[in-house]
Amino acid sequence: MAELQRRGELKMLQTARYFFDQAANKLNLEEGLRELLRYPKRKLAVTFPVQLDNGSVKHVEGFRVQCHSVLGPGKGGIRYHPDTNIEEVEALAVLMNWKCAVAGLPFSGAKGGVRCNPKEMSEREIERMTRRYAAEIAPIIGPDVDIPAPDVYTGEREMAWILDTVSMHHQGEFMPGLITGKPLLLGGSLGRDTATARGGFFATLQAFERMKTKLEGSIVVIQGFGNAGWHMAHFMHDAGARVIAVNDSKGGIFNSHGIDPYKLKEYKDKAGSVVGFKDAEPIGNEELLQLKCDILVPAALEDQLTEKNASKIKAKLIVELANGPTTQEADQLLYKRGIMTIPDILANSGGVTVSYFEWVQDRYRYFWDAKKVDKRLKQFMTEAFTRVAAMSEKAKVNMRLAAYMVAIDRVATAARLRGLYA
Ligand code: NAD
Q1: Ligand 1: does its nearest atom lie under 6 Å from the Cβ of 299?
Q2: 99, 111, 182, 316: which one is catalytic?
């Protein structure tokens, strides 16, 4: 089991490097820069003690990985998960590097993780662990160095504890620019909770414009009904599209006439799953992915579209809200079949873009209303999509490779200007 898990993590890192190499070849990137950009700058692995409520002490592993800070300070979430390790955190840091660059943000990639099972810990244990981890990474983070954020099983609560702990290491200085995804009262931004889906929705609007198709009346299938999936479902529904199938880890539901996402959310909040929703029939995961539709939105897990099912996908457009839902083999198969994909590093970059807005607002201590956040997000997503689509046409490559090329070219140009590899 542990061996299988390890292979899975290494695959993620290999996939990130595979697309980097493909894009670097297309860009004729010089050898010195390849070496600089292919690997992160710093990998910190720490172990630290956490006192449990029963008085015993457990040693916990924590990580923070930072890419070279070519475009600006590092940016990336912190995840709490029993399976996380340094390779996974490295792969996610590298993905963040390209995501920030493709979105046009003044950040480099970073990521953090703590190997733990928060579901089996009390709130006080999680707080003690979070504060200790924050103290361990404090020497290498900061508003102009590396700015963490929430990721799997961390949220506003943990961000507030990290802010408080690091402030104590700086004579009590209030440092809202240290971290994003904070509670509003501590300098969080409006619009952060919906940002990933909203950004994906804006990118979809751009794709439809290029495909000369109207969103109104189009058919949508969504895998996953968590933060990203639920918000995407209601944005699509509000725009007049018909969401015909949705699933979660417990199962899926289908109704060819459309599912009301608001009623479904209400139901899921009570029932704990979309399964059993009365206005629909059950559907399996593979069946759902292979439904005839205009837009397929993977918003759950990695490695969902593979060489096994890529030839059976009937969507016209795939919008990757999840990280890494398509394998490199499936990517090629889908491209050959003329299915357009808005790749993860572009489609889900709305989240980090609004994190950037949060950081900017924190620096000014002046906060925007929700309308302004959404307007600017639309502008950033539209510009990012346009850059990638233009590269795709110019280099005659699919949108994924184009996104990597835009990102790597941006970082490489900045590195040359700085003489970073001299
Ligand atoms: P979440 O935990 O809120 O939701 C995940 C959803 O996927 C849940 O509904 C869960 O039941 C479902 N799921 C799990 N296993 C499944 C399976 N086998 N089949 C079908 N559904 C399954 O997470 P989220 O924040 O919505 O993130 C979803 C994806 O989007 C992840 O890949 C994440 O990395 C990516 N992402 C999220 C954000 C963000 O801001 N939320 C930003 C960037 C990327």
Answers
A1: yes
A2: 111
